[in-house]
Design brief:
The protein contains two helices and six strands. The chain is α/β, with parallel strands linked by helices and 133 residues long.
């Protein structure tokens, strides 16, 4: 008799902080994205083997130049994760770049709207790097 092995995301931890995002919402998003990627390779169920996800770091260095009233910025979002499956640790890193062109007035707020989207794209790449091994 073949036993089907299935998994569930038992824990989401973060050693990094994403400003402007509620911690519960952050954990829910990481859990949902992890389950989506896991489901491509494994069966998911509520009483399966535990999978633990840790967001190790979030880096978002920004480079920019200013020409008159215009500013051009390039932001590189880097997310590093650790996923534990069956007692084995898998590490991933995801990077995503965005370029924004705005006037000075639009860039006075450092929390540009694209940051959260950039984070989610980099997170997905990091999780895929760790899970698709």
């Amino acid at each position: 008799m073949n036993q089907i092995i299935c998994y569930f995301v038992s824990a989401v931890l973060s050693l990094a902080q994403l400003d402007g995002v509620d911690q519960k919402r952050f954990e829910f998003g990481v859990r949902q994205m992890t389950e989506e990627i896991l489901s491509e390779k494994y069966q998911l169920c509520s009483d399966g083997r535990p999978v633990e996800v840790t967001v190790l770091s979030i880096e978002a260095p920004t480079r920019g130049i200013q020409v008159g009233p215009f500013e051009f910025k390039q932001k590189k979002t880097i997310v590093k994760t650790k996923v534990v499956i069956d007692g084995k640790e898998y590490y991933g890193e995801g990077t995503n770049k965005t370029t924004a062109t705005s006037t000075l007035l639009q860039l006075q707020d450092e929390n540009l709207p694209f940051e959260r989207t950039e984070f989610s794209v980099a997170l997905k790449k990091s999780l895929e790097d760790a899970l698709i091994h």
